[in-house]
Predict the structure.
Amino acid sequence: MADPNPTPGIHHVTCVASDPQQNLDFWVETLGLRLVKRSINQDDPSTYHFFFADAEGTPGTSMTFFPWGDMQQGKVGSGQVARIAFRVPEGSLDYWEARFDEYGVDYDERVERFGESVLPFRDPDGLPVELVAVDLPDDEPTVPWTAFVSEEHAIRGFHSVTLWLTDPDPTIDLLETMGLERVGTEQSPGDTPGDERTRFAAAGEVGKYVDVLPTVEASRQGHGTVHHVAFQTPTDDDQAEMRTAVRSMGLRPTQQIDRHWFRSVYFREFDGVLFELATKDPGYASDEPLDDLGGRLVLPGKFEDRRTEIEATLPDVTIPTPEGKSEQPDAEADADD
């Protein structure tokens, strides 16, 4: 069997939140990411699905959340994506520490990993997140959203995810099958398990790294944990080849599922972390003008006929704006969707 085309890296990461308004306020206003899509969980339409990204929703920049208010508090441990790291321009970590002080964000002292400065912090649900200072390339593919944070400091997509695994070896084989290459191993400070961190690099520029640490730390899904990580398989052919390769390793990928903004295949890797393969198209601007991304509740496909029912179950939310006001959902525009 021919090797599949290597994945360019992370497409998006989806996490579990508690309160939807708190989630919006933090990720839009405090961190300065753009709400590029306000929708629903397509498997549980009584729950929002928020997508935060760069100004254009570029693949590799999209952090998404299911705000399941009645779920328990989660616990990060083995069989999970334990850390999510974002890229920020070199020299901007002083700005972010000052901003975290201003907004009351819980953060730790910086650490050095693989020659890079890392600022660990937590969102309001306790989700472990990091900012990594990097030199941006001349052909940087991300487009910063500057409504709350200036371009010189703005988050520029994913840097990496960290997997905590009881037995990393089978997953390492999987990552290499997906086209990631081992770039180094080191003992780094700030890692709860206190063991060696091994880094793998994908073919792209954004969201290119996956770090693996062995741990037997108990885990529990809930608020403040990652639901799944999606990797880019840009075309349907890329995705089909990757699905075949994954299946040949004894894993059980789903058939392709239409998620409206991309087409997806899901499977659990050997330690139980939920992986997704996601196409590049159609993209977040396929059903809204680029200037209006996130401005209205978008209901994919079959759900539009249930708009009245679905809207009645969702709590009211307001979108932070730089003027200190909040944008209420446009009832007339929603009705015309």
